[in-house]
Amino acid sequence: MAARGKLIAVIGDEDTVTGFLLGGIGELNKNRRPNFLVVEKDTTINEIEDTFRQFLQREDIGIILINQYIAEMIRHILDSYTNSIPAILEIPSKEHPYDAAKDYIIRRARTMFTAEEH
Protein backbone atom coordinates (compact mmCIF):
# COMPACT_ATOMS: atom_id res chain seq x y z
CA MET A 1 0.00 0.00 0.00
CA ALA A 2 2.89 2.41 0.70
CA ALA A 3 3.95 2.36 -2.95
CA ARG A 4 0.50 3.41 -4.09
CA GLY A 5 0.07 6.32 -1.72
CA LYS A 6 -3.08 7.29 0.09
CA LEU A 7 -6.65 7.44 -1.14
CA ILE A 8 -9.20 10.23 -1.25
CA ALA A 9 -12.49 9.33 0.44
CA VAL A 10 -15.76 11.10 -0.35
CA ILE A 11 -18.94 11.53 1.66
CA GLY A 12 -21.47 13.39 -0.40
CA ASP A 13 -24.65 13.57 -2.37
CA GLU A 14 -25.10 11.41 -5.46
CA ASP A 15 -23.86 14.03 -7.93
CA THR A 16 -20.71 14.76 -5.96
CA VAL A 17 -19.76 11.13 -5.36
CA THR A 18 -20.57 10.14 -8.95
CA GLY A 19 -18.33 12.94 -10.24
CA PHE A 20 -15.42 11.77 -8.13
CA LEU A 21 -16.00 8.14 -9.04
CA LEU A 22 -15.96 9.06 -12.72
CA GLY A 23 -12.67 10.81 -11.99
CA GLY A 24 -11.25 7.50 -10.76
CA ILE A 25 -11.17 7.76 -6.97
CA GLY A 26 -13.33 4.69 -6.26
CA GLU A 27 -11.50 1.90 -4.42
CA LEU A 28 -12.26 -1.05 -2.17
CA ASN A 29 -9.85 -1.87 0.63
CA LYS A 30 -8.75 -5.40 1.52
CA ASN A 31 -11.96 -5.83 3.55
CA ARG A 32 -14.01 -4.82 0.48
CA ARG A 33 -15.01 -1.49 2.09
CA PRO A 34 -15.45 1.41 -0.36
CA ASN A 35 -13.82 4.80 0.10
CA PHE A 36 -17.06 6.67 -0.54
CA LEU A 37 -20.58 7.09 0.83
CA VAL A 38 -23.53 8.40 -1.14
CA VAL A 39 -25.78 10.27 1.28
CA GLU A 40 -29.42 10.07 0.24
CA LYS A 41 -32.54 11.34 1.96
CA ASP A 42 -32.96 8.06 3.87
CA THR A 43 -29.30 7.87 5.02
CA THR A 44 -29.20 8.24 8.79
CA ILE A 45 -26.84 10.50 10.69
CA ASN A 46 -25.53 7.39 12.43
CA GLU A 47 -24.54 5.90 9.07
CA ILE A 48 -22.73 9.12 8.16
CA GLU A 49 -20.98 9.23 11.55
CA ASP A 50 -19.97 5.56 11.37
CA THR A 51 -18.60 5.90 7.84
CA PHE A 52 -16.71 9.07 8.75
CA ARG A 53 -15.15 7.40 11.80
CA GLN A 54 -14.20 4.36 9.70
CA PHE A 55 -12.49 6.64 7.17
CA LEU A 56 -10.56 8.30 10.01
CA GLN A 57 -9.27 4.91 11.14
CA ARG A 58 -8.23 3.63 7.71
CA GLU A 59 -4.49 3.74 7.04
CA ASP A 60 -5.05 3.97 3.28
CA ILE A 61 -7.02 7.26 3.37
CA GLY A 62 -5.16 10.58 3.31
CA ILE A 63 -7.98 13.02 2.50
CA ILE A 64 -11.69 12.98 3.27
CA LEU A 65 -13.87 15.18 1.09
CA ILE A 66 -17.30 15.89 2.52
CA ASN A 67 -20.13 18.06 1.25
CA GLN A 68 -20.41 20.98 3.63
CA TYR A 69 -24.11 20.48 4.30
CA ILE A 70 -23.36 16.88 5.34
CA ALA A 71 -20.45 18.05 7.49
CA GLU A 72 -22.95 20.24 9.33
CA MET A 73 -24.84 17.07 10.32
CA ILE A 74 -21.74 15.69 12.07
CA ARG A 75 -20.14 19.00 13.08
CA HIS A 76 -19.65 17.76 16.65
CA ILE A 77 -17.27 15.08 15.37
CA LEU A 78 -15.42 17.43 13.02
CA ASP A 79 -14.90 19.99 15.76
CA SER A 80 -13.27 17.41 18.02
CA TYR A 81 -10.92 16.08 15.30
CA THR A 82 -7.36 17.42 15.66
CA ASN A 83 -5.15 15.22 13.46
CA SER A 84 -3.81 16.47 10.16
CA ILE A 85 -4.04 13.12 8.34
CA PRO A 86 -6.46 12.29 7.02
CA ALA A 87 -7.14 15.88 6.08
CA ILE A 88 -10.81 16.82 6.03
CA LEU A 89 -11.96 19.18 3.30
CA GLU A 90 -15.48 20.54 3.08
CA ILE A 91 -16.73 21.03 -0.45
CA PRO A 92 -19.90 22.54 -1.94
CA SER A 93 -22.66 20.57 -3.57
CA LYS A 94 -24.90 21.47 -6.45
CA GLU A 95 -27.85 22.20 -4.16
CA HIS A 96 -25.97 23.76 -1.24
CA PRO A 97 -23.46 26.59 -1.75
CA TYR A 98 -20.17 26.74 0.14
CA ASP A 99 -20.04 28.95 3.25
CA ALA A 100 -16.48 29.71 4.38
CA ALA A 101 -17.72 30.70 7.85
CA LYS A 102 -18.80 27.10 8.48
CA ASP A 103 -15.67 25.42 7.07
CA TYR A 104 -13.79 23.25 9.57
CA ILE A 105 -10.30 24.14 8.29
CA ILE A 106 -10.93 27.89 8.09
CA ARG A 107 -12.47 27.99 11.56
CA ARG A 108 -9.54 26.01 12.93
CA ALA A 109 -7.00 28.28 11.21
CA ARG A 110 -8.73 31.37 12.59
CA THR A 111 -8.43 30.08 16.15
CA MET A 112 -4.75 29.26 15.61
CA PHE A 113 -3.93 32.69 14.21
CA THR A 114 -5.94 34.60 16.80
CA ALA A 115 -4.24 32.64 19.57
CA GLU A 116 -0.81 33.59 18.19
CA GLU A 117 -1.68 37.29 18.09
CA HIS A 118 -2.32 37.47 21.85
From TrEMBL:
Q: What are the annotated GO cellular component locations?
A: membrane; presynapse; proton-transporting V-type ATPase, V1 domain; vacuolar proton-transporting V-type ATPase complex
- Give the record's keywords alphabetically: Hydrogen ion transport, Ion transport, Transport
Gene Ontology biological process terms in this record = synaptic vesicle lumen acidification
Gene Ontology molecular function, alphabetical: proton-transporting ATPase activity, rotational mechanism
Show the Pfam families listed in the entry.
Answer: ATP-synt_F
**NCBIfam families, A to Z:** V_ATP_synt_F (TIGR01101)
User: What does the record note on quaternary structure?
Assistant: V-ATPase is a heteromultimeric enzyme made up of two complexes: the ATP-hydrolytic V1 complex and the proton translocation V0 complex.
Per its database record, what is this protein's job?
Subunit of the V1 complex of vacuolar(H+)-ATPase (V-ATPase), a multisubunit enzyme composed of a peripheral complex (V1) that hydrolyzes ATP and a membrane integral complex (V0) that translocates protons. V-ATPase is responsible for acidifying and maintaining the pH of intracellular compartments and in some cell types, is targeted to the plasma membrane, where it is responsible for acidifying the extracellular environment.
Similarity comment text for this entry:
Belongs to the V-ATPase F subunit family.
Q: What is this protein called?
A: V-type proton ATPase subunit F
Tell me what organism the protein belongs to: Monodelphis domestica (Gray short-tailed opossum)
Name of the encoding gene: ATP6V1F
